[in-house]
Amino acid sequence: MKASVLRRILNLWPPFLFAGIRVKALSADWRHASVRLKLAWYNRNYVRTHFGGSLFAMTDPFWMILVMHALGRDYIVWDKSGVIDFLAPGREDVFAEFTVDQAVLDEIREATASGDKYLRWFDVDVTTAAGERIAQVRKQLYIRRKRDRVPADAIEG
Question: I need a labelling partner for 38 at 20 to 30 A (CA). Which of 17, 27, 58, 114 fits?
Fold first, then answer.
């Protein structure tokens, strides 16, 4: 699937659509995503700030999607854990920017070359348009090269 198609699908996906989450960009090379969460009457909490579940949801799938597509079909990539730290009340639209660097992909390929699993944390800040940090989200991915794609000489044994 092309990144542009997935971006359109995600923008119509009910958990994003009805939470006010909009994928602004998803690069064709699967290395970058940009997401906005609009503050509206339907996604505020009791004290009229961003609902924490929406803040987490706006970041939830992107590390997995970006890493999975950037690595290619030879790898299994799953979300394993997630943590969110709320740093300030969100009283306006907020944004998250995800970027997967080549060095990270090289690190993952090296760590999984023999077919071993690899657990890696990825961080993203949720910020206002002015750059104020509202939350920090950490996601841990489980990554493994598919067993039938591991070269025989790479398997320890």
Answer: 27
